[in-house]
């Protein structure tokens, strides 16, 4: 976009429009993130009700990582879920 060919008002309008669109996209992403979080919590609760101790499993993974040399990527709690 060449500055000489586009007026200042057009540039302002373009940037304001982009910000409005991105703001709405951010709101939608937040909604999706909340839904995913709720679903994850539902599954964690179901596993807990079934007697699965995710905290204990996470500690075991962490202990194994400390005793075993890293081979590139490390497992996170999300990998267990």
Element string (H = helix, E = strand): HHH
Give the N-to-C terminal Cα separation.
46 Å
User: How many distinct domains?
Assistant: 2
Q: Describe the sheet with the most strands.
A: none
Number of strands: 0
Sequence stretches where pLDDT stays below 50 over 5 or more residues:
none
What is the count of DSSP helices, taking H or I runs of 4+ residues?
3
The backbone outline, from C-alpha atoms, is elongated
Average per-residue pLDDT, rounded, comes to 87
Give the fraction of residues assigned to helices: over 70%
Question: Which radius of gyration do the C-alpha atoms yield?
Answer: 23 Å
Name a few traits of the molecule.
81 residues; 74% helix; 3 helices; mainly alpha
What report would you give on this structure?
- The protein has 81 residues and is mainly alpha-helical.
- It has two domains: 50 residues; 31 residues, no CATH class.
- The protein is built from three helices and no strands.
- The radius of gyration is 23 Å and the shape is elongated.
- The mean pLDDT is 87.
């Amino acid at each position: 976009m060449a500055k000489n060919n586009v007026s200042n008002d057009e540039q302002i309008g373009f940037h304001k429009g982009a910000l409005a669109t991105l703001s709405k996209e951010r709101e939608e992403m937040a909604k999706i993130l909340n839904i995913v979080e709720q679903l994850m919590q539902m599954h964690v609760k179901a596993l807990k009700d079934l007697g699965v101790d995710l905290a204990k499993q996470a500690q075991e993974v962490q202990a194994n990582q400390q005793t075993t040399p890293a081979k590139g990527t490390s497992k996170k709690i999300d990998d267990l879920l």
